[in-house]
Design brief:
This protein is of the alpha+beta class and 170 residues long. The chain contains four helices and eight strands, in the order αβαβαββββββα. The protein has a single domain, classed as 2-Layer Sandwich (Methyltransferase, Cobalt-precorrin-4 Transmethylase, Domain 2), CATH 3.30.950.
Length: 170
């Protein structure tokens, strides 16, 4: 996370990569946002950002971000409600005129990611649940990214390693 990028996202309109919330305790809302960013329906391949303690216009709400709040946000990752586990960072930032917790969530290699069994997505500034068609799109990405050992490249091999006689027909 870098300051200039965060400041840009904070004051811009909410999108499929950003969400602001003034709440410090709405773990369901936080988990749905994290799940949505991990699913990356727009397929940007870039992280999403949840700004906790931010007003709708991108200013700090005046809340004090404590270690307890940061631990609560980080615990969402592995409390068992989001599957498969998302990759994310949680940090406290002095931004927007005060303190905020910023959760950076990376797109999952294994979508769809579900929160309590439901696939959360973002379509522009709206967070919601995936339709069957959107679930299929996410599932197809999973299949595409989950290659078996025989479909993976072996970059350290050379032409001399090939057993060419196995490829000739007799």
């Amino acid at each position: 996370m870098n300051r200039s990028e965060l400041e840009k996202w904070l004051v811009d309109v909410e999108s499929d990569r950003t969400e602001r919330t003034i709440s410090l305790k709405d773990t369901d809302k936080f988990a749905e946002a994290i799940c949505s960013f991990a699913n990356d329906l727009a397929n940007t391949g870039k992280p999403g950002y949840l700004f906790v303690g931010a007003t709708p216009d991108g200013r700090a709400s005046g809340a004090t971000i404590t270690d307890e709040i940061l631990q609560c946000l980080a615990a969402i990752r592995s409390d068992g409600n989001i599957q498969p586990l998302p990759t994310m960072n949680v940090e406290k930032w002095e931004i927007g005129g005060g303190e905020m917790a910023v959760v950076e969530v990376f797109p999952s290699d294994m979508p769809p990611v579900r929160y309590r069994g439901r696939t959360c997505i973002r379509v522009g500034p709206r967070r919601g649940h995936a339709t069957p068609t959107e679930e299929r799109i996410l599932s197809e990405r999973r299949v595409d990214r989950a290659r078996t050992w025989d479909a993976r490249p072996c970059r350290e091999a050379s032409l001399e390693d090939l057993a060419l006689d196995l490829f000739t027909l007799t």
